[in-house]
Design a protein that fits this description.
By secondary structure, this protein is α/β, with parallel strands linked by helices. Among the domains are: about 70 residues, no CATH class; about 170 residues, Rossmann fold (3-Layer(aba) Sandwich); about 80 residues; about 160 residues, Leucine-rich repeat, LRR (right-handed beta-alpha superhelix) (Alpha-Beta Horseshoe), CATH 3.80.10. Helices cover about 35% and strands about 15% of the residues. It has 27 helices and 27 strands. The termini are far apart.
């Protein structure tokens, strides 16, 4: 104990020295400029001392309980759910009040967007159907937020002025193919493959924009004279739009908008008025009528130089800590006088583990979009996620807590929700700069125009975003002995014709595997490559590998027998662009007992041994030992989505019950796929009866079910394990659904119903009882001719490849036409 106190005293002397010099802001900036590696080592030493002390039985319970680290996980018996709900509500408040004090700018932008096309004159020549409007201001002034608000306003406006509204984050690297893909993803809900040729996606963009009045936001545009050809390609594609279309540009400099032909006066984003800035700050700090809080809040707000991003990050930390002494100390902290200093102050008040996870984000380029699951799993692979005896849940729950903390305090921001429901997040440019500073020399990125020769020796985390990046690394014979992360992502611009398929990919991999013996995370995303890729046997040299992410255009990936020796492996993520590819893997994959996530189509036997498994995207039932449905019995940690194929060979209800699906309480989506053959309908019905999903399931898909009846868990309120909160139901190639029982809980909360390729002659007669249903999609139902009375709650109906129904729904006066008139959005398509 004496030794611990001695070490602590020495460390505190260093901190006291720093604190004593606090009147000089240069000392605070010291933390942002000092070599990150040495500073982090000292900080970790101090934290280790505190941890040792905290675990000492000589410390009183009161002392240990006084800690208020934001990274702590609720102890057993506490309500983690209520805490998470508070965080979600807080984040929602941030989104709902994004534009405090910007009413004048909002009105000015909206007026210019909707003004007649000739009011300001075309952007460059009179034949173009669009004009360019520019917003400019310093980093952190709220340009992107304002543009996003304008987009949301226009989408929700009752008078739809624009047919299409699209948003693309451009950043310092202008890539026309990336902008085209953003446009198509938002207009078709499907993102084109990265391997598609520029000419192909350019044509598709023109087809989608042809004759449409559109609003396109190009966010964070930078002047780049080297990209003039790509800018011309973009503007050429936009020429097909209808007169009155608009391009809204946000940039830090006026000349960025002018480069795209912005002829009219651009809209500056000035500092907020003092009163409005205080309102913004106090909103995030927690509005209070207490005069003392307001007095100190004014003092703090005055130090922040009217920076919106500083108001948000500092304010949210103050909302969490309502002690007057803490507010007073903050008001006297000179580091808040600069925007970067204010962000650093907020960063310092995150939990220690959360800070380390945030610093890791500097590995990725600015504007890079990440999903929560991907980032949390990478943090886990790096050993950044810690649990203790009082923690609830898995490592993923703890990592998600870190993520929520960063999201709550605006270190992350949600930038996109894909059609699939996946949310994408990124960091504000200034916060990314902060991450780079605190990360130090352990992290290095090579962007599109960079060179691997610039990688410093001893670096631990590397992102290579160049074409043929993997091959260049080999040719330069770089020293990667200490590397913990290697991410290679081809960032093909679409105009570079020099990029060729990497035919020697296996040789490149072999070189990397033989040298990356300390690697924890390997992610390789290629736009070009051979159709079949065989991973070299030398992969077993990477004994510490925990996360493997591969995205190739190949049809098949072959993993060697040595792959099953990677005993630390936690996550396998293999995709073929937007789809899963076939993966051939060793029969003894179940030896990898630490596997937590398998996001790939790679069937292997005896999966029941992987009791830590949480993600298993596909399970294929076969008439072979090791592939029985009962293999799922003890995998009760499964979460997210699970697809079960081959249910047609299951022979009884008892066999289906062995899977114990109802026990997998964290599954949110379940796909049950039978097979389109001559299975006995009565047996199939018994099998489905035994496949009762967990009660908290959100999405259910039943495919190719030809049973003679529907299961009791689908129809009866009395079933104890039946889904109680199902929101989406998809039936594909199934026998007709009987009338919906009015006492069924499964349908109470249903918001979306898909009927796909079913040979039904009609929908259930009592559809009006689906009082929560908002979306109804009917596709490929040629036998269906008449609609029943539809629920008043419907907001959208889509009918396609069902010509009899589509024709009558478009025929004014027909009873089908009359039954859909109350629905705001009607998408009725006839087969071409």
């Amino acid at each position: 104990m004496t030794g611990l106190l001695t070490r602590l005293a020495k460390s505190l002397l260093l901190l006291e020295y720093i604190k004593g010099e606090k009147d000089d802001i240069a000392v605070d900036v010291f933390f942002l400029t000092i070599d990150g590696k040495s500073l982090r080592k000292r900080i970790e030493d101090i934290e280790n001392i505190f941890n040792d002390l905290k675990n000492s039985p000589l410390l009183s319970q009161q002392c240990s309980s006084s800690s208020n680290s934001s990274s702590e996980i609720p102890a057993k018996g506490t309500s983690k759910k209520s805490s998470r709900q508070e965080q979600i509500a807080d984040s929602h408040r941030k989104i709902s009040h994004m534009v405090i004090g910007r009413d004048k700018e909002c009105e000015d932008i909206s007026r210019k967007l909707r003004k007649a096309p000739d009011a300001y004159g075309p952007s460059s020549n009179s034949s173009r159907p669009y004009s360019v409007i520019g917003i400019h201001g310093i980093a952190g002034s709220g340009k992107s937020t304002l543009a996003q608000y304008v987009c949301e306003y226009e989408k929700k406006a009752k008078d739809k002025h624009f047919d299409l509204i699209m948003f693309s984050h451009v950043s310092t690297t202008f890539r026309v193919d990336k902008i085209f893909r953003d446009i198509l993803e938002q207009t078709t809900q499907v993102r084109p493959s990265d391997t598609e040729r520029l000419q192909s996606i350019q044509k598709e963009v023109k087809d989608k924009l042809q004759g449409k009045r559109f609003l396109l936001v190009l966010d964070d545009l930078w002047v780049n004279n080297d990209k003039q050809m790509e800018q011309d390609i973009l503007l050429d594609a936009l020429d097909v739009g209808q007169s009155g279309s608009r391009i809204l540009v946000t940039a830090q400099r006026q000349d960025a908008g002018a480069a795209l032909g912005c002829a009219q006066k651009q809209i500056p984003i000035p500092d907020l008025e003092k009163k409005e800035y205080l309102k913004l700050f106090m909103h995030h700090a927690g509005s209070s009528n207490d005069a003392e809080y307001k007095r100190i809040g004014i003092k703090i707000a005055n130090k922040l130089r009217r920076s919106p991003i500083a108001a948000v990050t500092v304010g949210k930390q103050l909302r969490r800590n309502r002690r007057i002494r803490f507010w007073e100390a903050t008001a006297n902290d000179v580091v808040l006088n600069e925007t970067m200093g204010a962000l650093w102050w907020s960063y310092q008040h995150l939990g220690a583990d959360t800070r380390r996870c945030f610093a890791y984000c500097s590995t990725f380029p600015r504007g890079y979009k990440l999903t929560r699951d991907e980032l949390v799993r990478i943090w886990i692979a790096q050993g950044f996620v810690n649990t203790n005896s009082n923690a609830i849940g898995e490592l993923e729950d703890v990592g998600s807590h870190y993520f929520d903390e960063l999201l709550t305090f605006s270190f992350f921001m949600q930038v996109q929700r894909k059609f699939s429901g996946t949310e994408l997040f990124t960091t504000h440019d200034l916060l990314h700069e902060l991450a780079e500073r605190v990360a130090g020399s352990d992290f290095h990125r090579i962007n599109l125009n960079g060179s691997p020769k610039d990688i410093p020796a001893g670096v631990r985390h590397v992102f290579i975003g160049t074409n043929n990046g993997a091959k260049v690394v080999v040719e330069k014979n770089l020293d990667f002995r200490n590397l913990r992360t290697l991410i290679i992502e081809e960032r093909y611009t679409g105009t570079d014709r020099t990029t060729q398929p990497m035919d020697d990919l296996e040789e490149v991999f072999d070189w990397l595997f033989m040298r990356l013996k300390e690697l924890r995370v390997l992610i390789v995303k290629l736009n070009h490559g051979p159709k079949v890729v065989s991973v070299p046997a030398s992969i077993d040299h990477m004994k510490h590998l925990r996360y493997l992410g591969l995205r190739f255009p190949c049809v098949k990936l072959i993993l060697p027998s040595t792959f099953s020796r990677l005993y630390h492996m936690q996550t396998i993520f293999v995709r073929r662009n937007s789809n899963y590819m076939r993966v051939s893997c060793p029969e003894d994959m179940a030896n990898l007992i630490h596997l937590r996530h398998v996001t790939a189509w790679m069937p292997f036997p005896n999966v029941h041994r992987l009791t830590s498994l949480q993600t298993l995207t596909h399970f294929n039932v076969k008439e072979e030992q090791g592939y029985e449905l009962k293999q799922l019995k003890h995998l009760n940690k499964l979460r997210g989505a699970l697809t079960i194929w081959g249910l047609g060979i299951v022979g009884s209800k008892e066999e289906a019950l062995e899977a114990q699906l109802a026990c997998k309480q964290r599954l949110t989506k379940l796909v049950l796929r039978f097979r389109n053959d001559t299975c006995n309908p009565d047996v199939t019905a018994e099998v489905l009866e035994g496949l009762c999903p967990p009660k908290d399931l959100v999405e259910l898909e039943i495919q190719l079910y030809k049973g003679s009846r529907y299961p009791s868990w689908m129809l009866s309120r009395q079933h104890p394990d039946a889904p109680k909160r199902l929101q989406k139901l998809l039936l594909m190639g199934c026998s007709r659904l009987a009338s919906i029982p009015e006492d069924s809980e499964l349908f109470t909360h249903l918001r979306e119903l898909h009927i796909i390729k079913c040979d039904w002659d009609r929908l259930p007669e009592n559809m009006e009882h689906l009082v929560s249903l908002q979306n109804l999609i009917i596709h490929g139902c040629d036998e269906m001719e008449l609609l029943p009375t539809l629920p008043e709650s419907l907001r959208m109906i889509q009918i396609s490849s069902s010509d009899a129904l589509s024709t009558t729904c478009k025929e004014e006066g027909h009873q089908n036409w009359q039954k859909i008139q109350h629905i705001p959005e009607k998408n009725i398509f006839l087969s071409s």
